[in-house]
Write a structure and sequence with these properties.
single chain; alpha+beta; Nucleoside Triphosphate Pyrophosphohydrolase; 3 helices; about 35% strand; globular
Length: about 160
Amino acid sequence: MAELPIRCTMASVVVLRPAQPEPQVLLLRRAGNYLHGAWSYVAGHLEAGETLWQCALRELAEETGLRPQALYSADCCEQFYDAQGDCIQLVPAFVAMLEAGASGRLNHEHDAFRWLSLDAALPELLFDGQRELFARVRREFVERAPPALLRLPLPSGD
């Protein structure tokens, strides 16, 4: 019997900042060959020797130049079939909380960014799993305070 491998090689980060009348989420438009023109959020591959939460922080800094005030595990994984690798990818999700007015900058992987309400961001996302993640973030990080046990340590100096 053949089996399809399950891999966990990536992390994703939903970035929130306080705003009125409700918090805003950061969307980035892909500029490279992979999903060119699609709106998404921070995501990237794990590097040797780092934990997934360290990967999340590194990818956030590389893609946007942003440093969060707090980083949380979203307590869920995105999952999808990766046709190129012929595997199921599990992608642990994180939530980065920024200070009000934080903006950031883009690296070569993206050509535009927008800060939107979660409701306005939903129709911009291509995949149901992404929309489900945003619904979870609204429920667990916007409508209520996240459990302290989900908060991850930030390196000193951040």
